[in-house]
Amino acid sequence: MQSARSSRPGPGRSLAAAALIAVILPALALAGCEASIGAETQDPYTPGQGVHADTDGLRLRGVVAVSAVDGSATLVGTILNQSSVDDALETVRFRGGRTALGRSPLPLRGRGIRVLGVDTSQGKATPATLSGRAVRAGVVVPLTFDFRRAGTVTLNVLVVSREGPFATVPAPSKPATP
Questions:
Q1: For residue range 13-48, what is the model confidence (pLDDT) as tens digits?
Q2: pTM of the model as a whole
Q3: Is 136 exposed, middle or buried (0-12, 13-18, 19+ CB in 10 A)?
Q4: Preceding omega of 105 cis (within 30 degrees of 0)
Q5: Whose CA is closest to 123, among 112, 111, 134, 132?
Q6: Of the residues 26, 59, 146, 166, which has the fewest C-beta atoms closer than 10 A?
Q7: Residue 83 to residues 19, 30, 72: CA-CA distances in angstroms?
């Protein structure tokens, strides 16, 4: 004779199933967090205006272009030479535009700091200007910095209006030359 079995699970099976679901669902939900690896919030960023870059012992910090009128801007930023070896900023360039540095090449002493565009607590600034049709507030301009020892660095630099925190940045003092 066959014995009749109930198709309904007993109380022990229900508790085991509930416990299994209680463990698996949160694990699956948390596994979704893995999808955020490499998301923009995981990458270093500048918590303000201006961009940063590091190359072969040099650190470019807070680089931004400040424009009072379309077509020209003052390049603002700081270059820190973390190396004990001297270097020099030979040129700053961008496609379709012109640049001018107060001194070119611009010496960068080992373990020294060079400020561009506006005087800061770090030192007196070297004038740096940009000019060209692409230079207008709200535009990002790819600037290439050519260093004698450290090589070339290209930064996507935001052009901002000369207002708010940038209201005191001096307007370009002389037209940039090719």
A1: 777 767 767 767 666 666 655 555 555 555 555 556
A2: 0.72
A3: middle
A4: yes
A5: 112
A6: 26
A7: 59, 43, 33
